[in-house]
Amino acid sequence: CGVFGVFGHPDAAGLSYYGLHALQHRGEESSGICTVDTARGNAFNYHRGMGLVKEVFDKEKLDMLAGDRSIGHVRYSTSGASQLANAQPLIFRYRDGDLGVATNGNIVNAPEIRRELEMSGSIFQTSSDTEVIAHLIARSPKDFVTAAKEALQRIVGGFAFLIMTNDKLLVASDPHGLRPLVMGRIGDAYVFSSETCAFETIGAEYVRDVQPGELLILDSTGMTEDRYAEIERRATCAMEYIYFARPDSDINTINIHSARKRMGQRLAIESFVDADIVTGVPDSSISAAIGYAEQTGIPYELGLIKNKYTGRTFIQPSQELREKGVKMKLSAVRKVVEGKRVVMIDDSIVRGTTSRRIVNLLREAGATEVHVRITSPPFKNPCYYGIDTPDRKELIASFRTVEEICKEINADSLSFLTDQGFVESVGGNDGAYNRGMCLACFDNDYPTVVDEESDKSCSC
Ligand code: 5GP
Ligand code: SF4
Ligand code: MG
């Protein structure tokens, strides 16, 4: 998911519209904006709907969202939860006013807290675990900020939160900084976003990344930089660098395109193969393919084309839709690949569906050899922090060797980037093993307690 917040700009909804549009790659299922209008008694206005930002909002809708503060959200779902009730921001009645919550991420202990709250009388309106934080805040007799701090201390997981009442905006990142969240300025206003690419779109200036465990409190007195937890172990999600984030974004000041390019270069060093052309699977692997080509001197070619009117394949809930999605999404360029030995760069193999399909597309278009190079280590363990991954039993690398996967995807050869190669590609070699990243889907070392049995589906 993607979140976007504004504090102190007369057109908060307009900025949110463009900001969320820039974050659309983080979720295509639903979009929503909630504003507070300090010129009219701090009233809440909001609109949410299923679909893309440009489908959910038009001029009329935006005009109704008067206000100078806002929180906004784009959502991707996992199976079963694709419904309007779960579209964010979630809005609640709170004391004599309103409470809005927008989240990117997942609360690992949400089911447990939810059960406990339900046993003592809470009635939940959604199946989203974001609602848990609202209930924790609402049930506390303490003042809003203290209640929010204590609620944040109760929850475990990977999350970026924007929480708004009629007079305050809270911005928080989980104690490990798993999900990205950045702060920017536009004139006197503050803006907050899952990724920096949204700042470029609206003409805001990047200030800094919100730190793990940090809690920013914004109200009529300005911004207070506080924290609700110490940084235990910084663990920025590796998949953000590999796949999820847009190439023009920076996370922890590291540019995504440049990091991916270094992954491609490293892959060329670790597992060189002689070929006629290098091609990347659009869009996320183009940067890495350029890096591989630059390192080897093998020309980079546009061997695959993406139909940009199809969504990200993994966003569709069922396997059947996903298979169809892949066919609608990619085509091989026959005149480019015909009679050629092709190195095909992709960012990850999750279930194996996409890779097998693409290898076959290239062969059907006349490629004589297809060598697959993956810019991440084998994806063996599920994510509990809001990246949509299937159960362990569906992760092909958890039950197949590299040779078996190679055979299954019908490639001539297959190599993955090593853990160390990946880490050094992102952050350089300073001796620290993980450079403050979560690599759990590769090395099974989760930064928090996780429960294999628990529902890990992302509700954001
Ligand atoms: P596969 O078909 O092997 O599951 O997916 C391969 C491609 O789609 C990769 O480029 C990968 O980044 C993306 N992908 C597919 N499914 C998922 C998923 O469930 N989670 C994530 N994070 N990426 C996926
Ligand atoms: Fe990211 Fe993988 Fe960690 Fe999940 S387990 S936060 S996908 S690195
Ligand atoms: Mg891909």
Automatic annotation (TrEMBL):
Keyword terms: 4Fe-4S, Glutamine amidotransferase, Glycosyltransferase, Iron, Iron-sulfur, Magnesium, Metal-binding, Purine biosynthesis, Transferase
UniProt binding sites for [4Fe-4S] cluster: C237, C383, C438, C441
GO biological process: 'de novo' IMP biosynthetic process; purine nucleobase biosynthetic process
Names of the cofactor(s): Mg(2+); [4Fe-4S] cluster
Gene3D superfamilies hit by this protein: 3.40.50.2020, Glutamine Phosphoribosylpyrophosphate, subunit 1, domain 1
Record has Transmembrane helix as a keyword: no
The reaction(s) this protein catalyses: 5-phospho-beta-D-ribosylamine + L-glutamate + diphosphate = 5-phospho-alpha-D-ribose 1-diphosphate + L-glutamine + H2O
Name of this protein: Amidophosphoribosyltransferase
